[in-house]
Amino acid sequence: MAQSGVTFTALEGESDLVQSSSVSLGGGRLATISVVGSNPQQAALESGRALRFIGHDPVTRLTVLAGPEDDSEPASLGSALGLLPGDAVYLPGQKRASRVVRWENTFRGKVLPVALLRIHHPLQDTPLPGTPLTNVEGEVVALCHEAAPGISNGTYALPVEAVERIEFDLRNFGRVSPCWIGVTVNAPNPVLAVEMVRPDSPGAVAGLKRGDILLSVGRWRVSNYAEARNAFYYLMAGRATNLTLLRGTRRLDLKVVPEVHPVYRAEQDRERGNQEP
Q: What is the reported pLDDT for 48?
């Protein structure tokens, strides 16, 4: 599996360089993690050769860079969705398994915008951010993100689905754009019921109604607010997404087509207007 070390320039006021690893997406494109304190737009390979900035997601710190075109095979991307506590994942070159501890969707009492995997490693040294984790078939299922506090040598890891999500936006829109379907749910409610559907929104067009109980969003099963927030992160503008829900005792399957969130759409319209002669 093609893997490269990446050095980020620290943000202004910071003196140290920041080291990450990466995974090849093919065609010279690399996916990595630009941790807090590093400048995602200023990066180079370990050889010192500069990398071109493609895009960055401030939510996950996932960054896509471009270097020289090469003939190396891109990494085979799998899926993190089926990973359960105790499952084995592997660091590059390691035969001893790291182990999934659990999915984490809250931190210090706050709901995370994206659920992370907590992984425990057999090594003494914590893997660099961006280091790929593979399943037994050699498919990348997650990228190491940052050290996980507490017992054992652990890291949080970002599901590989986030790479696919960001690559979709960058290739189709040239930037990362959060999506919406115009639906709100009540966080304190123990039942994941729809509180409001905005008129003329994608959710309204799809047929969602107040009181519908969400069961799944795309490939993600959801049963509470934290899981729903994570699933909504993976919505892609213009790509139809399956929703499974309960309406009373009826189980329904609907198809919704997400849109770029209105706040970001207005920002993009302003930017295009400023570029016009």
A: 86
